[in-house]
Design goal:
6 helices; mainly alpha; 2 domains; flat
């Protein structure tokens, strides 16, 4: 059943790459634009949808969870293939978009941390003192 989680990821990955290529063609870039991000978003939405419908067994969810944990190394490996020096030489757009994206993420994280409540925190630990009772 864990292999079904991997198959679900493969389906999302291939669909994401296809949509990323279409997006690249639509904006006039000869490259995949956001294919991995599209794939991971599809995987998240499909996981939630299938879980809500009761169609995802625990073993399949474990397979999806494994690949969700592998997301960061995969993205880092794919980013290593990008030619950052050529992007910076091509113009300041890459640098400005990176700064804008980092600033937007910082603002969203700050807003979420201030507005939300933490239901996952442990309750405060109360120290109980045990005393011996004497027999009277």
């Amino acid at each position: 059943m864990i292999i079904y989680g991997t198959a679900l990821l493969a389906l999302c990955h291939l669909t994401g790459l296809f949509l990323g290529d279409l997006l690249g063609v639509a904006i006039g870039v000869k490259s995949n634009v956001g294919g991995v991000g599209i794939a991971m978003l599809m995987l998240i939405f499909l996981k939630i949808y299938l879980h809500d419908k009761g169609l995802m067994p625990k073993e399949t969810e474990a397979g999806v969870g494994f690949w969700g944990a592998m997301y960061i190394p995969v993205v880092v490996a794919m980013a290593a293939n990008q030619n950052v020096v050529a992007a910076l030489k091509g113009g300041p757009v890459a640098l400005l978009s990176a700064i804008a994206a980092a600033a937007a993420c910082a603002c969203v994280i700050a807003a979420l941390s201030r507005s939300g409540r933490d239901d996952t925190a442990f309750p405060p630990a109360h120290h109980l003192e045990f005393t011996e009772e004497e027999d009277v």
